[in-house]
Amino acid sequence: MTPRAECETICTELAGSGAMPIVPVSGLCQFQAQGHTISDVVITGCAVQQVSFQPVAGVPRGALMTVSYDVHFDYTAAFPEGASIRESAVCSGSVQFIQLVTPSRSVLLTPPQCTPDLHCRATDGGFDPATGTQSFVVLVFGSVDCVSCSSRRVVENVQLCSGAPLAEPRQDAAPGPGWPPRT
User: Fold this and answer.
1) How many domains does the chain have?
2) What is the domain extent for residue 44?
3) Distance (Å, rounded) from C-alpha 136 to C-alpha 56?
4) Dihedral of alpha carbons 26, 134, 69, 142, sign
5) What's the pLDDT tens digit per position in 55-91?
6) Phi, psi at 88, each rounded to 5°
């Protein structure tokens, strides 16, 4: 079996890049309490930690985005014996969604070359005493700037590949014109 080559799409005419707003997306972050209940939650911050982009088959302008975030919060921890203390914690989560990231009449490069400018906002989703889980609803918003190929004209987009070829040449194929070479 021939190993697959690693390929990168290049194009003869770049459409350029431009910030595209994303449709705000909601995610859920759940923090597991360890033997206590949680009350008096105060959210102190929400930060996007990492963003990744993957091309989506059949959606030339779109990408599957994975956004990881942290919700920072303070809370009162109440223990079964009656003691309570003020604590700080971080709830980490992520959300995946498909987003159009290039202007109309353009095609996203493979692999995507995108720069995110994303933010998040968290709201208290409440504490469930049955499961011991504190929930937060997280809203991700902002924009992404991705390099794309123009598709306004007939432009041949090619792939630059490294590694082994995707297919072996046929040994039984007839030689092309001019074969054998003149001596």
Assistant:
1) 1
2) 6-162
3) 29
4) positive
5) 888 888 889 999 999 999 999 999 999 999 999 999 9
6) -120, 145
